[in-house]
């Protein structure tokens, strides 16, 4: 879990840079479209949509873009007919690291071809459905910042139906729960005065591969960066752990 959390922290730091490139804008706009289409297009009544909008605002996406994405999802935006669907892909990275990719795409063939090329060029291979997903469990995760009293966080988490929590760094915590309980947990933590900056579904590895070789780590980071750079890709999760000193390779 520690390696996963360190990588999650790196991803959050990188998100700021990605947003400037417009990458995050594309991802979050698609997430809003799908959320609005899968439920009512009213964030007050649609937790998935509300969460997607909160993420978009945190990434400084203009309100006009957000409203346009909601309209596209609701089918009220002109003649736009793009039909995005959520698909999960699976594969192996360097050293046998298991990788799950969540995508939103309007063209399955294009996405599969792009992913296959990314894997083959970076020492991995795209696998069949089910080849690595058995090593992951999907959980709801609330990101809580400004935690100064861990005991109070524990009490609030238990009241909200959490399964576990983990302190990461800079007074930040990740609180885990069953996917169907995410909205309840998020609201309970907020009601108790905690600052919930994100609520998301995440694949959590049940086992991990330790990466100690710098070249292997560099290849792995490059593969994940390449995958995350694809417009169709929403999230990339892997089951590796690396030493702290190798994490710097992820931004080199």
TrEMBL record:
Matching SUPFAM superfamilies: YebC-like
Protein's cellular compartments: Cytoplasm
Name of protein: Probable transcriptional regulatory protein H6H03_21735
Main localization (coarse): cytoplasm
InterPro entries: Integrase-like_N, TACO1_YebC-like_2nd/3rd_dom, TACO1_YebC_N, Transcrip_reg_TACO1-like, Transcrip_reg_TACO1-like_dom3, YebC-like
Molecular function in Gene Ontology: DNA binding
The keyword Transcription regulation appears for this protein: yes
Gene3D superfamilies: 1.10.10.200, 3.30.70.980
Coiled coil: none
Domain TACO1/YebC-like second and third: start-end pairs: 84-240
Keywords for the protein's UniProt record, in alphabetical order: Cytoplasm, DNA-binding, Transcription, Transcription regulation
Organism of origin: Nostoc paludosum FACHB-159
Family the UniProt entry places it in: Belongs to the TACO1 family.
NCBIfam families (alphabetical): PRK00110.1, PRK12378.1, YebC/PmpR family DNA-binding transcriptional regulator
Domain TACO1/YebC-like N-terminal: 5-75
């Amino acid at each position: 879990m520690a390696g996963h959390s360190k990588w999650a922290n790196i991803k959050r730091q990188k998100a700021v840079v990605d947003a400037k490139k417009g990458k995050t804008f594309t991802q979050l706009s698609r997430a809003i479209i799908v959320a609005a289409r899968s439920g009512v297009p009213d964030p007050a009544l649609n937790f998935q949509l509300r969460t997607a909008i909160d993420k978009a605002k945190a990434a400084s996406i203009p309100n006009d873009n957000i409203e346009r994405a909601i309209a596209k999802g609701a089918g009220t935006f002109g003649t736009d007919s793009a039909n995005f669907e959520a698909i999960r892909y699976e594969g192996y990275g360097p050293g046998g690291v298991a990788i799950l990719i969540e995508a939103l795409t309007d063209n399955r063939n294009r996405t599969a071809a792009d992913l296959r090329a990314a894997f083959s060029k970076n020492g991995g291979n795209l696998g069949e459905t089910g080849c690595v997903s058995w090593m992951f469990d999907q959980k709801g995760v609330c990101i809580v910042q400004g935690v100064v009293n861990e005991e109070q966080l524990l009490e609030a988490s238990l009241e909200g139906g959490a399964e576990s929590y983990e302190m990461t760094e800079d007074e930040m915590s990740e609180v885990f729960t069953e996917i169907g309980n995410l909205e309840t947990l998020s609201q309970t933590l907020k009601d108790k005065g905690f600052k919930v900056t994100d609520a998301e579904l995440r694949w959590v590895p049940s086992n991990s591969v330790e990466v100690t070789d710098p070249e292997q780590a560099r290849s792995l980071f490059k593969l994940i960066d390449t995958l995350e750079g694809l417009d169709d890709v929403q999230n990339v999760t892997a089951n590796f752990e690396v030493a702290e000193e190798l994490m710097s390779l992820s931004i080199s």
